[in-house]
Amino acid sequence: MESSYSCTDRGSLNQSSHDSGLYISPEIVKRYHQWFETYVNSFLSHNSSDENILLKREHTLNVVKEMQYLTKSLDMPHIEALARLVALFHDIGRFRQYARFGTFADRDSVNHAHEGIRVLKQEGILAKLSSYQTRIILTAIAQHNRVHIRTRREPYRLFCKLIRDADKLDIYRLVLDYYERSEKEKRNSGIELDLPDIPEVSSHIIEKIMCREPVNYHELCTVNDFKLVQAAWIYDLNFPASLQRVFKQRYVPRLMATIGESRETRKLYSRLQGDLIELMNKKRAVL
Ligand SMILES: [Fe+2]
Questions:
Q1: Arithmetic mean of pLDDT, 46-51
Q2: In 10 A of CB 270, how many CB atoms?
Q3: 42 contact partners, CB below 8 Å, separation of at least 6
Q4: What is the pLDDT of residue 182?
Q5: pLDDT tens digits for range 187-212
Q6: Where are the domains of the chain?
Q7: Could you tell me the CA-to-CA distances from 101 to 97, 105, 110, 112 in Å, in that order?
Q8: How far apart are the first and last CA of the chain?
Q9: Structure confidence at residue 112 as a pLDDT band (50, 70, 90)
Q10: Ligand 1: distance of its center to the CA of 65 in Å?
Q11: What separation in Å is there between the alpha carbon of 276 and the centre of ligand 1?
């Protein structure tokens, strides 16, 4: 499990941030939003195949909002603009990935984070930023979809933690909106990662989650496995505000309700819900 973000970390960042080059003007942020819209529009063909492109566009804009919620909760307004750009660009590789391969499954195409970094470099879009700000953005993108954060250096690690939480918060909203639809007009392979939607859960996934071990996406066998992994994301959340959002929106019980009930899933649910409450109390105490 990731360590919490402590007062000491925040204090040292607050102190140095004004002269350490994290500031980005609202005008630049606005121009990047305009570039994002133009870039996404270039992938629209105005037919039914646009659905997944529009889904990723909506996801990105919601991750920007979740990011604002998190930076506000940390009372760190000086990092807000840079964090916002991290959110805006974190999935920029998704559009070309889908256009080239027709899937969002990285294992069948490319690592979408690496693809995003290639896109930003090829478009030369980060030229308005300093090399320090560019490094922060590229590091956070590269690590947003890894099992663990690799860097221990601040403030790189902070931005990695922020994007990983903001991303997960919106994915909860997005997948539940889909899973809870009683009548699915058609299945969305983009959300289900091309996994078979059969009523089974894999015992090796349940075992790993019960041991609080991370699961790699290539170990998933069914859509239900993926739902369990999403419920277990609570162990990877870094900030009290993220855990509170998951608790208040009842994301864990709602996910579990979409999986057929069994003795194992009931046991797993009470473990996850208990751990969520414990984690909220612990992180609140640390911050
Ligand atoms: Fe992503």
A1: 79
A2: 10
A3: none
A4: 58
A5: 676 677 778 787 888 888 888 988 88
A6: 7-163, 195-286
A7: 6, 9, 9, 11
A8: 17
A9: very high
A10: 16
A11: 24
User: Mean of the pLDDT values across residues 210-229?
Assistant: 87
Interval between CA 19 and ligand 1 midpoint (Å):
31
What would the two tokens of residue 127 be?
Answer: 């030229």
DSSP character string of the chain: -PPP--HHHHHHHHHHHTTTT----HHHHHHHHHHHHHHHHTT--SSGGGHHHHHHHHHHHHHHHHHHHHHHHTT-GGGHHHHHHHHHHTTTHHHHHHHHHS---GGGS--HHHHHHHHHHHHTGGGGS-HHHHHHHHHHHHHTTSSS-----TTHHHHHHHHHHHHHHHHHHHHHHHHT-SS-SS--HHHHTT----S---HHHHHHHHTT----GGG--SHHHHHHHHHGGGGG--SHHHHHHHHHTTHHHHHHHTS---HHHHHHHHHHHHHHHHHHHHHHHH-
Q: How far is the CA of 175 from the centre of ligand 1 (A)?
A: 14
pLDDT score, position 113: 98
By the 10 Å C-beta count (0-12 exposed, 13-18 middle, 19+ buried), 216 is classed as: exposed
Please give the structure tokens belonging to residue 153.
Answer: 């250096």
Separation CA 235–CA 57 (nearest Å): 27
pTM score of the predicted model: 0.87
Q: Report the separation in Å between the CA atom of 89 and the middle of ligand 1, taken as the mean of its atom positions.
A: 10
